[in-house]
Design goal:
The protein is α+β, with helices and mostly antiparallel strands. It has ten helices and five strands. Helices cover 41% and strands 13% of the residues.
Length: 221
Amino acid sequence: MKSASNMHEILAFLRQLAINNERPWFKAHKDQYDALREPWEQDMERLIGLVAQFDPQAKGLGVKDSVYRIYRDIRFSHDKRPYKDYFSGVIGKGGRHTVQSCYYAHFGVQELMLCGGIWWPEKPILDQLRGLIDAEPDEFLAIVNHPDITSRYQWMSQSLKTMPKGFPKDHPMAQYLKMKEYLLVMHLDEAYFDCEDWVERVAADLQPLKPLHDFLNYVFE
């Protein structure tokens, strides 16, 4: 099946938006934006369906609950640009409002990437995640060191400089216990979308993340 949207056209539009990030320009090009956004949302809806085939967490998720609006919230930001220069969406229980481990697709001017994991968990959840990794190190390492993960993804997580309280300095899992978030990222280039159906390709590249989600989301059960 062929993708409904053309990612090259989307990225070309977003590059122009990044240069002309102001309301008059966007208003003048709103029809073009709508013409690109609609088929992209159709593709994201199909991506959700493909992910739901291997991960029940995605079942029942509506595309409107998954994808982010292009309008930036500038009320409390020093950056007053009104629009994002990327299209993005979260796939997982709760969509973009989730606090659980989930899938994330980000297609933009600065970065093209697929991600999976937990973004900035609150401290009680982070403490539980560290405790889980401490209790089940072999299971965790088997997941994150699997070739299907290491051939695609790398860690993109900020870490403490010292060990969190309650763990010895020489803990064998120190690298992971210091992390403030558990986030894997696969960086893409525009050529990634030079295929008949990039939606199926994205789904296939997201599937190896499911065991990580299952492990991390144990703390929510």
